[in-house]
Amino acid sequence: MSGYKWKEISDLPNDIEALRDRELEALWNVWASEKTRLDPRLVQDFSAQLAREWAIETGIIEGIYTLDRGITQTLIKRGIESMYISHDAGNRDPELVARIIQAHADVLDGLFAFVKSERALSTSYIKELHAALLRHQETVGVFDQYGRAFEATIEKGLYKTMPNNPTRADGSSHEYCPPEHVASEMDRLIQMHREHDDLGVRPHIEAAWLHHAFTQIHPFQDGNGRVARTLASLIFIKREFFPLVVNRDDREAYITALESADGGDLAILVRLFAQLQKRALTRAIGRAVDVKPVTSVEEALALTRDMLVDLGRIIPAEYLAAKETAGVLVNQTLQRLNTVTAALTKDVSRVSSEFVFRTGTLGPAVPGGAVPANEIKAIAEKLQYDPNTNDYHSSAVANFQARDVASKIVVSFHGVGSAFRGLLVAVAFFQAGNGPPTPICDDVFRISYQEPRDDVTKRYASWLDACLIRGLAEWRRTLL
């Protein structure tokens, strides 16, 4: 069967401004402001845990080893030690797994040193990365011309000498760059990247382009995915963002985005990389509660102010912009939900009294409107953030009554982390009866005090409609 045919790498699309993510830019500005007043140990601890997560997950999504989630969390929090890996927690020897993960972690450490030294990216450095990432792997499974599988020695830091085109379950083949063209294509990749650097292409756009262009070449016999994610992380680190953590839960979206890029649409991969960065930034801002040691009266005054902020006694004037914007979005949501329930009432309730539709709100300010805390917690676990409904909460709800089954679409606005830092999020979920909530958004919608309100409301309109389309699809399934 036919499949993807190799073609030379192409440059960025003409309209790269359309790929810009203003939410990411605003969020980075919030983080840049917050981290200046933090105890450096707090930043180092968060960065170290994120680095260990990167080192672990980059091998898991490639199938190099398996680890259950409990062991993964232990390694992230305590460090990469084989004693934390039980023999029944994965599919390989714990000592070897720990060495492979440590090799990944060492490479990530090396990226920071590389950026600090201001070296330019080159093909020789990419070969160094490959050799370091595969330091503890000796062989790779390959197929000969007759389709017979055998183990071949991995040539670390050397370009492939034979095709490495995978065959899919349906019999189709994905064709990567032929070995004889690898060197010239890698030279073109470096040249294009340097041109992008000179133009100041935004990091989430350049990281997505570089990652995809590299994977199209697939220059090494094995380990290309890990090298590609390392290169993407290098782009982000160079611009003072976090390493790109693609974890096992992101794998399906990641593969879909790469396939879309193969078809000429880079936008989906750009959005995914921006989303992963926003996830890391949201977590970092949520932890921003400790402050640097006090060395002056001015710092003591600032510490007092910040302590009152942490205790919820006061809110800085600039932070209030996020709450005011959230209030605007709540009203925007209610208006949109009213449109939905009014249309359903007209088209459905008018001909059948078994259906009832109405819109409402939930929250501390609403009599009887309890915060859907358990539901928000469940959604937060899936979307990987730390919810906080104490500092702010408001939920808009569309209720769908069909005979004895009451379903609802909920859009909830609340804080993140242990203290309000001028960042709120919105999430949307569907729930049928007392069943578990189902997220109808792929990521939270972030509201920061840094982003102009008009920009936020424009972004929100399309995000909300996408959620409603998915929510209505979930409701239709309950009617079958």
List the helices and strands and how they pair.
Layout: H1 22-35, H2 40-60, H3 69-78, H4 94-117, H5 123-133, E1 139-143, E2 149-153, H6 182-199, H7 203-217, H8 224-238, H9 251-262, H10 267-286, H11 297-310, H12 320-349, E3 355-362, H13 373-383, E4 387-402, E5 405-416, E6 423-432, E7 438-439, E8 445-448, H14 453-478
Antiparallel strand pairs: 1-2, 3-4, 4-5, 5-6, 6-7, 6-8
Helix pairs in contact: 1-10, 2-3, 2-4, 4-8, 5-8, 6-7, 7-8, 7-10, 9-10, 12-14
Would you give an account of this structure?
- Helices cover 50% and strands 13% of the residues.
- The strands form two sheets. Strands 3, 4, 5, 6, 7 and 8 form a six-stranded antiparallel sheet that branches. The protein has a two-stranded antiparallel ribbon with strand order 1-2.
- It folds into two domains: 16-286, Orthogonal Bundle (Fic-like fold); 320-478, no CATH class.
- By secondary structure, it is an alpha+beta fold.
- It has helices spanning 22-35, 40-60, 69-78, 94-117, 123-133, 182-199, 203-217, 224-238, 251-262, 267-286, 297-310, 320-349, 373-383, 453-478; strands at residues 139-143, 149-153, 355-362, 387-402, 405-416, 423-432, 438-439, 445-448.
- The model has no long low-confidence stretch (mean pLDDT 90).
- Helix 2 (40-60) runs antiparallel to helix 3 (69-78) and helix 4 packs parallel to helix 8.
- The longest helix has 30 residues, at 320-349.
- It has 14 helices and eight strands.
